[in-house]
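Reopening this ticket.

The earlier resolution said the output was attached, but the attachment link was broken on my side. Pasting everything inline this time so it's all in one place.
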Amino acid sequence: MYINQIHNKKFNLILYLPIPLVFLGLIVLNYITTADVNVEEMIQMMINELGTNLTFAIMVGQLAICCVILLFWVKFIHGQSIRSLTTSRKKVDWKRIFFSFTIWGVFTMVTTLIFYFLSPESFVVNFDPVKFFPFLIIALLLIPLQTSFEEYFFRGYLMQGIGVVTKSRLFPLIITSVTFGLMHIANPEVGKLGMIIMVYYIGTGFFLGIITLMDEGLELALGFHAANNLIGALLVTADWTAFQTHSILKDVSEPSAGFDVLFPVLVIFPILLFIFGRKYKWTNWKEKLTGKVYEYSPEIENINSIGNDNE
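Inline output:
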């Protein structure tokens, strides 16, 4: 099992705690310090002083650096392989990553085009080659590291660690999904749309946690998250979002939150679960999502590796 990957290493709770305590502490500190601040205006001030691309690079680059630090900590402090933090398979399945990236990237592009043609007055063409292509390079370099950090931290490091401590698969699913959502609470989208947007953030956390547990690895979550942030940042920006970019389109409509916030969680994500489940032949959902985490043994690893290589 994926969570059991940490069992065949020398798991040390003292060495495990600094990373989550520091990062989650920074989330709380950031929320407290920005509680009385207009985050949208703060981002705009940074853009006025530093420019859009540099502001974007600073904001995303922080988590990209965190990704490097986390992987270093896992590899050299814990002595755990990056492969075992990524998957229960004998090697990382890049086909899974690319399939997940492609299916969500295509969905994002198609829905964006549909919204553009249905409501052209809500968008302006923002494409400027001189500004777009430098941004494209920055995005390609930093966004995959940013999204990989969030997956490695929440669905990897926390999922495995909490699972080992609690001997449960359900507890780490709930805890990592809720904390993932709360990480976004200081985003300007929350101030603009209200707390209902947290349903989307936490719901996305549950979706990513479910596909990680069912697929016994991070590959699908890594691909989905990278497509969501990268394709989204390249296609559309708005003055009230966390990502201010030199994208192709700019949304100039007045934002509002309603069923469109709930639609992905209630409709799209279940459809994706069905697609992934059929393609990778997922079975025994209840046990994989709510069952116990047993002590590691080579026999368990061999049994659970059977079927994990389904294409």
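Reporter confirms the inline version is readable. Confidence is low (pLDDT under 50) at residues 299-307. Strands lie at 123-125, 236-237, 249-251.
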